[in-house]
């Protein structure tokens, strides 16, 4: 289908009547979010590529002034290098094959993270002249996923690793990741104080402290106040490190990209008992609905673009594949006059949608359609 550069998603739906799910991208929204981070965060802003690795995302972030990227694989390094040859690469997947390490070195990675002595030995030569950030883990409540369950060194191990990083002549840093969609600044505050303690016990002065991603997107409740988190991070760093604070780094994925995309799925059928079948679901752009709870900002429009406005009713909603797991958990509140052929628009769908969607059963998402506004 040709992209007519429509002004907004409903205009595109009305004109094209797409019978496949469509995801819409608004570059202005993405660039405005990037500027919000660049203005508000008290340090270097990097983008976690895994949240959405589309070329148009990387290009617009680069145009907005993002000059460093958090990458986890050689393919992500190549994606960044294609659009920003001079960008700084931070390779923060702490488990790497030897071939991946060689790829990181060849790509000029400037920062590596580590959470295990054997992994540190593996990168010690490739990381000469670069920064190595010890990844700390604490049990942190309040995030949708506990990232500490997979990666990170507990404080005693982190202290030993940090000493060894310094002994190897590498630039010592620390990092943590509080978990994704983390709405409570207290998670960052706890980590920053714990990192300062580890560094002090190791007797190592940190060049930088990377406070991870995990910043919340607008999802389910009011729009999050990122600035409150930025302020808490700045204050905690001052109080934990005193006169010689490390430079700060952050690596948002979700909060950077979520708002810049809206997903539209078509209603394939409404059964007599009220169940709704969409042409996108958990194997496509909606996979996060399984783990992340409900979305609020839904709009249902008729094929001619008129909003459906009958009183909302809770509906069981299925995706299009033949797998019975392909069902939105719980129910979605949809207008009571929902009908076959309508389009359901989900706001805030830029993160972990395109990057995760499969082609299972011949469904999934195509290339985004660029719009002037969402
Ligand atoms: C996934 C990830 C991020 C981005 O997380 P968001 O919750 O999307 O902000 C940042 N850093 C690391 C190390 C990650 O694994």
TrEMBL record:
Pathway: Amine and polyamine biosynthesis; putrescine biosynthesis via L-ornithine pathway; putrescine from L-ornithine: step 1/1. The active site is at residue 322. The modification N6-(pyridoxal phosphate)lysine is found at residue 50. GO terms for cellular component: cytoplasm. Keywords: Lyase, Pyridoxal phosphate. Its cofactor is pyridoxal 5'-phosphate. InterPro entries: Ala_racemase/Decarboxylase_C, De-COase2_N, De-COase2_pyr-phos_BS, Orn/DAP/Arg_de-COase, Orn_de-COase, PLP-binding_barrel. It holds the Pfam family Orn_Arg_deC_N. It comes from the Bacteria. It catalyses: L-ornithine + H(+) = putrescine + CO2. Its EC number is 4.1.1.17. PROSITE patterns: ODR_DC_2_1. GO terms for biological process: putrescine biosynthetic process from arginine, via ornithine. GO terms for molecular function: ornithine decarboxylase activity. The keyword Lyase applies. Residues 34-258 form the Orn/DAP/Arg decarboxylase 2 N-terminal domain. Belongs to the Orn/Lys/Arg decarboxylase class-II family. This is ornithine decarboxylase. The lineage of its organism: Bacteria, Pseudomonadati, Pseudomonadota, Alphaproteobacteria, Rhodobacterales.
